[in-house]
Amino acid sequence: MGANTSQVSDLSNNHNLKALVGPESISENDPFWNQLISFTFISPTSSGESKLLEEAVIPLAKTLIENNPRSGNFSALVRIFLGRTKELKISTECQDQLFIWQAHNALLMIRCLLKVFTREMSEEELHQQFSYQERAVVSCAETSNEDLLEELLSNLIHLIVEVPLLDITYSILFEAVTTLLVLLSYQLFHKDILHDGIIFQHLMKGRCLCLTSRLVKTLLYNFIRQEKCPPPATHIFEPKAEGGLLYGLASGVASGLWSVFTLGGAGSKAENDQEHNPLPLSNQSLLLLLVLANLPDGPDWPNPYRQAITCFRNTQDTSSPPAEHPHTFQINFNSLYTALCEQQRSDQATLLLYTLLHQNTNVRTYILSRTDMDNLVLPILDILYHVEERNSHHVYMALIILLILTEDDAFNRSIHEVVLKNISWYTERSLTEISLGSLLILVVIRTIQFNMTRTRDKYLHTNCLAALANMSAQFRCLHQYAAQRIISLFALLSKKHNKVLEQATQSLRGRQGDSTALPDYAQDLSVIEEVIRMMLEIINSCLCNSLHHNPNLVYALLYKRELFEQFRMHPSFQDIMQNLDTVIGFFSQRLEQAGSDLSVERVQEVIMKGAQALPKDRLKSLYIHQWPRFRHLKSEAASTSVVEPRSKSPTI
């Protein structure tokens, strides 16, 4: 590179880069370094351009790997960067853009080279690359005591937590965060957890440990602020007509668009369509935060970054932090909640929300106390509604979040008090007015039906039904369409049950005397009957606890009462069918007494009056014995389903 404007196509022929990766040692005091990091680079603005840049860097990096043991130029480049970071905070306060720009360019080069190094060599070999030095005389103290890799890690973290986020520092902060992500990417190339990794050891108990809470807090605030990339036309010096060695700042602005990781493999269609990323620092900070929080515990010490994530408190909390939380800090929960509500379109933001709800009791208590829960729940429902456009990890995380929320009775009551108007993204039916609770039921049922026809994942079924079961005792004023969909789902399951039962019967008749293995219809029937029982428990729970609040469900139940006839004498459902028989029989008798040819309005009136008259002691609370299963299910799902989808059932 150098003082002139560079493009990807110029990299292979750039004489400064050739000197850097060549076999000749270059002294750290050589003016070459100042020229090398003084360049204006037209950085990538799309994933395609990023790929071209990476491909252009690979041959240069491989040449450096070969020559660095003799030249020590890579460690010299790192020292040049470290020398500039020592005064970076002062340079920011003094608006010394030239100094910041050069430091950024040096870090950009280090990051590009490290991305190739991590794929081409082990951590031990990478550590060795940092130890090679120029052949000039080096003091014994410097040689023996300095770990340049740890020095780089420590300086990057110091840079992130100490340098304020401004237009002139945006790009170097992005590069610092992304460089840490590159160094942590070694786990991607190993099946086993790297407990003994050099980088892992430095981050967990080295010089970086004392900055744990400050780093986590800074990364969270980067996510909360959602700062956009500054305009790429920001220059330090305008070009002169006669030319010369001109410096520019454009190199650092668009480079934020080169993302190192994507979460959960291939992203969603919506994410893939957005080539240009206006919030690179926010997104990369969130990814680094999640990577740090999910690092494993050491042999005899916990992950300090996970500790910080699980115990931070609200700025309005004036109580003293517990002594057992050494990495706690305070952050504005209102700002965090707003950012979480706005960013659920990305799976990494959904993973952060899940992590906080699951592990940080302070955050969970705060979120459940909000009176505007629709701002958070609606984006989660949107993820589930567009299940065909999302990857499986995103869908599972959204579902587990609903499971966690529906464990709270106050949440289950409050969502039926929030009235929504004109939900534009729900296209199956025009919903001019519906409660948040009824909409949640509709979306979860739609997810179940999608799963029945497409993915056929037993555990997705079970988790969806567990969310409905957690809510069922608090169902209030169900929308007519929501009540219909509950019964329609039961009808669909009943049809599936009859089909498999018929197939099993025909198979047995047609294979008499045939020793070949039969399809496992018994297992298929068992799975379907388990799901049917869960549906019956949900309906039963609602009838036992809030029958008088849900005339639309009773109406739908009576309208399709013939569906339940076949299960009355079934040994798996006899106990739970008693309550349904009681309700159906009671209201059927009331309707017969009211006369024939009743209008819909008259039927609803009879149902509402009958609900007040039905003695509560006539319904048995059988569902209570099944309740702990759903709470246990949530915990199991939270620990497994977010990581990877479970095995698929052949019948559901």
Structure explained in plain terms:
This is Dymeclin. InterPro entries: Dymeclin. Keywords: Lipoprotein, Myristate. It comes from Oryzias latipes. Belongs to the dymeclin family. The protein is mainly α and 652 residues long. It has a domain of 236 residues. Helix content is 59%, strand content 2%. It has 29 helices and six strands. The strands form three sheets. It has a two-stranded parallel ribbon with strand order 1-2. α14 packs across α17, α23 crosses α29 and α25 crosses α27. The longest helix is centred in the last third of the chain and has 31 residues. It is elongated, with a radius of gyration of 31 Å. It starts with a strand and ends in a 12-residue tail after the last helix. The C terminus is likely disordered.
Secondary structure layout plus pairing:
Blueprint: E1 5-6, H1 15-21, H2 32-36, E2 40-41, H3 47-71, H4 73-85, H5 88-93, H6 97-120, H7 123-131, H8 140-145, H9 148-162, H10 170-184, H11 198-205, H12 212-225, H13 269-273, H14 280-293, H15 304-311, E3 313-314, E4 330-331, H16 333-342, H17 347-359, H18 361-369, H19 374-385, H20 392-405, H21 409-414, E5 419-421, E6 433-435, H22 436-453, H23 458-472, H24 480-510, H25 521-546, H26 551-559, H27 574-594, H28 600-613, H29 627-640
